[in-house]
Each structure stands twice: as C-alpha cells, then as structure tokens.
Amino acid sequence: MQLPSSLVQLANERIEPFDCEGFLPGAGPADAKIMFVGEAPGETEIYNGIPFSGRAGVIFDSYLEDLNIKRDDIYVTSAVRSRPFKWGQTRAGVRRKYNRTPNQKEIQAHAPVLDYEISQVQPQWLVPMGKIAYQRLLGKSPRLGDVTGRVQTSPVQQWDEEAASYVWTKKNYNIFPIYHPAAILYNRSLEQTMKDYLNTLAAHALHT
Ligand code: URA
C-alpha cells in the first residue's frame, strides 16, 4: 500500500531518537479480508524490502500454506515498520547490529502507520502474531496466553494524538491471536498446536 508521505515522514521523525533503521511498509491488497500483524522487520526484511522474508518468513509462509492462501490474498504488516537493533559482537569480535524486540516508545512512534493501514484495508479479521502485536492492538488484558487460537470480537487500540495515549476504536474486529512465527522456530513443539489454530482460523475466516 502506498502510505501518505506525511505519515512516513512523521513515523521516521518519531523513530529517529531510537536505535532503529529503515522503513518497510506493510504488503498486500488494500481490500484484504485478513490482516496479519507482526512485531517489526528484521535485518533481512529491511535489506530486501519484503515483510517476513527471513527465517521467520519461512514459518509465516507455512502458515499461509496451511490456510491454503497466498500472500496476494492477505495484508501483512507489523507494530513497528523499522528494524530495532542493538549493537553486539560476533564470535570473531566484529561489531555488528542484532535484531531486538521494539520497546513501547517505538511502538507508539509507529502506531499511526498501523492505524492507517487498518483504517484503509478495513480487514474483517486481524491476526496479531505474538505478544507485541497482540498488546499493541488489545492491551495487556486478557493475557495473550489465555486467548491464543481463539476467536474474539473486540475494538482495537489506536493512537490518539491529542490524548497522547491509545483509545479504543468504535468498530469491532474479529481477532484471532496466534504465535509469532519466530516462536515456532525456537520451539518446534508448538507446531501442531499452531496447525490446529490455523484450522480454526480457516473455518471461521475462509470457509464462511
Ligand atoms: N518479524 C516481524 O514481525 N516482521 C517481519 O517482517 C519479520 C520478522
């Protein structure tokens, strides 16, 4: 989706104080029925300009395969659209950047981008993948662990400039929280549970 340049400029200005690099818009058709929301792009995604194109992307593609849908059928974005990094050293002692989880200020800095994408696409289904996306959209309660793989209907949080805080949308969305693909990479025992969740999502969002 083509984001308004003023919105991108604002997002870049607000993320500037933090150790973040690049800017990668979400991808997919503007009338997608399902929007998947991740955490933030990593090194690979910023390098090649495609969301979920690194190691987690292989797992993300397997989600779509299980759902029997293609990237062109869905919209994929994340809470933060720049790559948060931290400096570290390789075993050979070379200084380099490593991916890290975005913090709340970084999530706020890019909140207007995600809000815009949601308002434009108006997806019937929002699929937050992992805790960062889930809490960005639904806050801390109910806990993600209590609702993963379950259908909920709920408003979502959007950033309010005047209040300088999140407010709830008037509109309700169908929400289906799932594991972030990286969680499966690090814990293969979640794989079967994830397949069961995707069957549930397909039954509700695709076969109705
Ligand atoms: N994790 C995300 O949340 N998004 C990406 O594009 C890659 C990894």
From TrEMBL:
Lineage: superkingdom: Bacteria
Q: Does the keyword Iron apply?
A: yes
Q: Which UniProt keywords apply?
A: 4Fe-4S, DNA damage, DNA repair, Hydrolase, Iron, Iron-sulfur, Metal-binding
Where do the Uracil-DNA glycosylase-like domain residues begin and end? 25-199
Cross-referenced InterPro entries: UDG_Type-4/5, Uracil-DNA_glycosylase-like, Uracil-DNA_glycosylase-like_sf
Annotated SMART domains: UDG, UreE_C
CDD domains (UniProt xref): UDG-F4_TTUDGA_SPO1dp_like (cd10030)
Picking any one GO molecular function of the record gives: 4 iron, 4 sulfur cluster binding
Q: Which PANTHER family match?
A: TYPE-4 URACIL-DNA GLYCOSYLASE, TYPE-5 URACIL-DNA GLYCOSYLASE
Q: What is this protein called?
A: DNA polymerase
Species this chain originates from:
Marinococcus luteus
